[in-house]
Amino acid sequence: MTFDLSPRPLNPAPATPRMIWPNGAKSALFVGFDVDAETAWIGNNPSNVDRMVTTSHGGYDARVGIAKILELMAELGLKGTFFTPGWTALAHPAQCEAMVAAGHEIGHHGYLHKLPDRTKLDEAFEEIDRGFEALQSALGVRPVGYRAPSGENFPELLAYLKKTGIRYSSSFRDDILPYRHAGADGAVGPVEIPVNFAFDDWNFGMSSRTSSRPLFGRDAVLQLWIDEFEATHAWGGVTTLVLHPQVSGRPMRWHILRDFLRHVIDKGDVWIATGAEITDHYEALEAASAR
Ligand SMILES: [Zn+2]
After folding, report:
1. CB-based contacts of 17, cutoff 8 Å, min separation 6
2. Residue 9 falls within a domain, yes or no?
3. How far is the CA of 151 from the centre of ligand 1 (A)?
4. From the CA of 148, how far away is ligand 1's center (Å)?
5. Mapping DSSP to helix (H, G, I), strand (E, B) and coil, where does residue 114 land?
6. C-alpha 84 to ligand 1 mean position (Å)
7. Which of 68, 107, 158, 177 is 20 to 30 Å from 195 at the Cα level?
């Protein structure tokens, strides 16, 4: 494999069009959860499957985290998107069915949470196919949104996602507004709802034996989230959350998330929507501007 290092924009997507949010809102909030469960620990490190304590970080999702997150969303009257690896849906069907029953959107998050690798195209596509099959058989859903496991993507994968019916991706870090991916040969790719790395709770709230790090508490995280949200709101962008029940479903962190979401709700002029709703809106604007 040779690498094309010629100077060019590595993401060829055209500039983001002007965004008008629904209902006079000044900005949008996309509450996205990654329901990795144990796949976060075994997808890229299969030998961890025999390490019960290591994988028990992910086991927290099924035993506590998912239920507490669903409780919080119900209390606040919010709908979110739960990006769920196929393996998680098959291993923990009851907990995942509860996400569907509560009216949340299910997104595609690979099958075993393997990092997409451009040097192994067949394996990358198989992760997509198996993810769809598992979500269909366990939950009866066919997702339209995709968040890349371990946050990686490449042109062939974007094209494959579009071909399989994925309407939007939520992984890239290069904008504060949704935009449309440009596929190979000028083909139209999925919509991107970019994420903000400041809202990935794993950075602040996960530490393990194999990756031991200090944790950040309420004063650091809540203020960071509020400041980043307020600035994004002032710029009229979308605040995209990358939350994990095995992190934000922990007792103290659950309260940080609750206080943050209440702060956003209290603004009164934020459109809080699922990924599918944001994509519907984006595509409606595209259609209107094409007329
Ligand atoms: Zn994940």
Report:
1. 179, 285, 286, 289
2. no
3. 8
4. 7
5. coil
6. 8
7. 68
Report CA(61)–ligand 1 centroid distance (Å).
12
Count structural domains, the chain.
1
Q: Is the whole model's pTM more than 0.85, yes or no?
A: yes
145: enclosing H helix or E strand: strand 145-146
pLDDT in tens, the chain (291 residues): 688 999 999 999 988 888 999 999 999 999 999 999 999 999 999 999 999 999 999 999 999 999 999 999 999 999 999 999 999 999 999 999 999 999 999 999 999 999 999 999 999 999 999 999 999 999 999 999 999 999 899 999 999 999 999 999 999 999 999 999 997 677 899 999 999 999 999 999 999 988 899 999 999 999 999 999 999 999 999 999 999 999 999 999 999 999 999 999 999 999 999 999 999 999 999 999 887
Q: What separation in Å is there between the alpha carbon of 34 and the centre of ligand 1? A: 5
- 244 alpha carbon – ligand 1 mean position (Å): 8
Distance 23 CA to ligand 1 centre (A): 32
Q: Helices then strands (H, E): number in the chain?
A: 12, 10
| CB under 5 Å of ion ligand 1: residues | 34, 36
CA 30 to ligand 1 centroid distance, Å: 16
CATH number at residue 198: 3.20.20.370
What is the whole-number distance in angstroms between the Cα of residue 33 and the centre of ligand 1?
Answer: 9
All residues at 6 or more sequence positions from 274 whose CB lies less than 8 Å from its CB, including other chains: 30, 31, 79, 80, 81, 104, 105
* 23: alpha, beta or left? (left if phi > 0; alpha if psi -120 to 50): left
Range of the domain at 115: 22-290
